């Protein structure tokens, strides 16, 4: 090989290496693509869409597992783990669509835990009250996104006529099923409003209300102090054990840290309550509990690919 060709190959190799290094740094610290693999954020986001996650939105979380094969998520070694650190820290805003690591996936390093995308509905210090299916924050009814999916039912003797009306209005309805003279279907709130406007008063949609769920609690925040009793330990047990790890034990509804019983507890992180738009098929705080700030990766910014025509290159709301 001539010296000239050798120099060209060396130059190209350097260009490729530097390019890969730049892309790797951007994905690690600035922005990273994420593909939705579930329906839990429909209809704001649909299954199969690819979005861009802004990792600078809440401050840059520094890598914890440094022995990782570049451009992979689950190819790593946990022999060396750095402590959690975030620079240029900024708070999560209400209604942000957030990507975070599952707090229950405790067998893996923090930055290698299962990824979950959901909407932030309550912030540190907020009170959350759910009664008969009504979701309230700070004693005010939560005004959810018009894209939130709910299950409705409608009394009609003819499912075919209803289906034709839905098609005429170009409404996206799912899970239509018929039981005697009642049709059950899933719609977002906007489509439900449009459909109701086109139906006679005798054929109005009704929401299936959850009359079982009934709970009330405060979202813990960094530095917040609580008195420990049977009720507070039941609510915050998961949070306390995650924060203190093997130092803490709960026995007979009493908290022991390093063997000493505690009467009060001070939280060391901020927490958030996530509620996905498709409330019927979701993995959010109702199953995962409080989401620690340290688990939050970034904010969903843009849809850069969608299987639905016209949705690509649009801002996420």
Comma- or semicolon-separated keywords:
25 strands, alpha+beta, 8-stranded antiparallel β-sheet, 4-stranded antiparallel β-sheet, flat, 317 residues, single chain, 5 helices
Tell me what you see in this structure.
- This protein is of the alpha+beta class.
- Helix content is 21%, strand content 35%.
- It is built from 5 helices and 25 strands.
- The strands form 7 sheets. Strands 1, 2, 7, 8, 22, 23, 24 and 25 form an 8-stranded antiparallel sheet that branches.
- The longest helix has 27 residues, at 3-29.
- It is flat, with a radius of gyration of 24 Å.
- The termini are far apart.
- The mean pLDDT is 84.
The major sheet is characterized as: 8 strands, antiparallel
Number of helices: 5
Helix content range of the residues, please?
A: 10-25%
Radius of gyration: 24 Å
Give start-end ranges of low-pLDDT stretches.
none
Count every beta strand, where a strand is a DSSP E run of 2 or more residues.
Answer: 25
Percent strand = 25-35%
Secondary-structure element order, N to C: HEEEEEEEEEEEEHEEHEEEHEEEEEHEEE
Task: Characterize this entry briefly.
The chain is 21% helix and 35% strand. The chain has 317 residues and is α+β, with helices and mostly antiparallel strands.
